[in-house]
Design a protein that fits this description.
This protein is mainly α. The chain contains 4 helices and no strands.
């Protein structure tokens, strides 16, 4: 998968996400991409995911539930892409979140 849009569309279709759920996941993914500044899914590293998690934890305006929801979206999408061999390297491997 060369783009985030393609990856997300494939994920949303495979998971049969409803419109509202897909919109929420897309928003969460957007927060991650805004933080990481990576152009393609293949550029995401373990360091990106870990730094994003630490950033979320240090935001006093985010509840624990919000941090969890944002991270679940990112982790689930990336892990799904690895299982479908759309990503060759798992940037979430060995993360303790």
């Amino acid at each position: 998968m060369s783009s985030w849009d393609e990856l997300f569309q494939a994920y949303a279709t495979a998971r049969s996400l409803g419109r509202t759920t897909a919109r929420g996941y897309r928003t969460h993914l957007g927060y991650f991409l805004e933080f990481c500044h990576v152009d393609s899914p293949q550029e995401v590293s373990r360091d990106h995911v870990s730094a994003y998690y630490l950033e979320l934890l240090n935001r006093p305006t985010l509840s624990e539930a919000s941090v969890g929801a944002r991270m679940r979206t990112v982790l689930t999408l990336l892990r799904w892409a690895v299982t479908r061999e759309l990503l060759l390297v798992d940037p979430t491997a060995d993360l303790k979140i």
